[in-house]
Amino acid sequence: xxxxxxxxxxxxxxxFNHAERNGDHIAVVFQPHGDSEAQMLxxxxxxxxxxxxxxxxxxxxxxxxPVALLYPTSIDxxxxxxxxxxxxxxxxxxxxxxxxxxxxxxVDVLSDSQASSVMTTESTRQSMWHFFAEAGRDFSLLDxxxxxxxxxxxxxxxxxPDAKDLAFIQYTSGSTxxxxxxxxxxxxxxxxxxxxRTACNxxxxxxxxxxxxxxxxxxxxxHMMQPLYxxxxxxxxxxxxxxxxxxxxxxxxxxxxxxxSAAPDFGYQHCVNAISDREDxxxxxxxxxxxxxxGSEPVDAKTMRRFAERFSExxxxxxxxxxxxxxxxxxxxxxxxxxxxxxxxxxLPVISGGSSSSNSSASEVVSCGKVSDQFDCRIVDPxxxxxxxxxxxxxxxxxxxxxxxxxxxSTDQTREAxxxxxxxxxxxxxxxxxxxxxxLQGNELYVTGxxxxxxxxxxxxxxxxxxxxxxxxQPAASGHGxxxxxxxKNDEPTxxxxxEVKKSVLASADMDTLRQDFIEAITSEHGIIVGDLLLVxxxxxxxxxxxxxxRLECRTLFQSTPIAET
Amino acid sequence: MxxxxxxxxxxxxxxxxxxxxxxxxxxxxxxxxxxxxxxxDSLGHVELSGVLERQLNISVSPEVAFNYPTxxxxxxxxxxxxxxxxxxxxxxxx
Lengths: 566, 94
Known about the structure:
The complex is a heterodimer of chains A (566) and B (94).
Chain A: H1 11-21, E1 26-30, E2 39-42, H2 43-59, E3 66-70, H3 75-87, E4 90-93, H4 100-113, E5 117-120, H5 122-134, E6 143-145, E7 166-172, E8 180-185, H6 186-200, E9 207-210, H7 217-229, E10 233-236, H8 239-244, H9 247-256, E11 260-263, H10 265-274, E12 291-294, H11 301-311, E13 321-326, E14 333-336, E15 345-347, E16 364-370, E17 376-380, E18 394-399, H12 411-418, E19 432-441, E20 444-450, E21 455-457, E22 460-462, H13 464-472, E23 477-489, E24 492-501, H14 503-508, H15 511-526, E25 532-536, H16 551-559
Parallel strand pairs in A: 1-10, 3-4, 3-5, 5-6, 9-10, 11-12, 12-13, 24-25
Antiparallel strand pairs in A: 1-2, 7-8, 13-14, 15-16, 16-20, 17-18, 18-19, 19-20, 21-22, 23-24
Helix pairs in contact in A: 1-2, 2-3, 6-7, 10-11
Chain B: H1 7-21, H2 35-38, H3 42-56, E1 59-60, H4 64-67, H5 71-84, E2 92-93
């Protein structure tokens, strides 16, 4: 096994190659709490732990089979994930649940993935036990593999998986009712690592990382795999530690001289909003931060301006901003850069393609950068499936070696999304339809919104239908009148919900309690703040003649003076 | 240096934060109303632990407000945790 980084056929080969050549170099650094001791692993230690875990997987006959990964943010996750890649098992990273609602989602994903083995730590296994018990599910049906799992004797040599094999399944934050698992092959990973490396102009021994969750594409492909692919160092901390006190992200960057770190727009916003002017940041030096990626939710020029103003005195360079675009279906990265460009905007051209609506009311759109050369990117009229005239808005269609293998266990959805031919070509290989709207200008991609109704808040896709169902299920609700929309409140995207409530309830109920009931239901099911809640009489929500809600009009209910609450 | 525990100043600090998210919050009326019932999301819960950290100058688990989800429960918990043994620099409250 000898290959230079860009020639290895699989990601795991590159990592092992670094272990051979630079075994003492630090591969991962984990900073659990604020000032506590960091945990580190060299490439040699990483390889030893990975191969030992991989042998456990092989001894249990798991190559080629889905294996769930249930870890808190940790080095154990890195080892477990790479062990799957090494043994040829199909890794399924899961979000560790903290409440019953998240547990329900976890069970849905587990059953969709068909994984019967779960890699975890002993303490996680114990904490999961009571969730299973409470939900009346049989914990023992799963094969739990933790630190105490018996290791097979001796060391065995085996072939690493083939590039075309599946490496992992990335579950996307799709509608709560049906989890969607994106199938990523070993070849997809390498293709996308190359796309990121080229676009960001990363070199060998890159230091990258931050607070993004490891079970999600941006944290996994961008933060964790990119530096390991390049023989560099992956530096990370738990997302919660960042949420608690966002200055810790900036401290991590400054302390470990991180070159590339990513966050959705919300992460930058959180720094501006929650780091008080009184905090002493005098030790902070952000001059090392050359690539500040901003992706996975609409990129807001205002946020970045405010961030740059606030942190330029700590040597943050506003040209380091690197708005980007990507998704699990393309492994991760699609467009971004060139590095050093900072924030570039264009005004929104005329929209073609009918049913579209932009998520923000602003007519200035931020460039999500140059489309990677790897992709064939077309802007397509979603109705006629023909390519739009240059510079107009349409649906973003893509093909190329980073486009993944489809949705797990779902051939229909895969066909509908992953191999769609253009109307005016009959023999070509089909495209991935992203469902996102945008336009191209000088090979840079500008993303303007989603084709289907979706609300994006803090990097999460929320489907109005899910929130509306929660409202309609409330005993006080009329049962068929609820609309959830996003609107701008004090310059921030906010969730507005209007619900038609039974007349009898409106007449008698205590409005404070009633409001709290709705807010509690929405917040606990969807984990999101309700910016504005209107409880109204049946028939108040504007509808079309065919009875469909006029969503755009509903949005104005929140922006203007609220309609009379009954 | 860790700061001295004061119920009043903690209530003030926590209320100050909650009011930025829930404008009609009233510390007296809502002392026993759960944070999620008030409309605080998971980020809001985690940020409350950050408020405690800054106020007390110690490390606090990010999950503490999920486990003690009202003003009274949260402050009582902090008080019990910290009164048993005097507040130390390396205190970490779960």
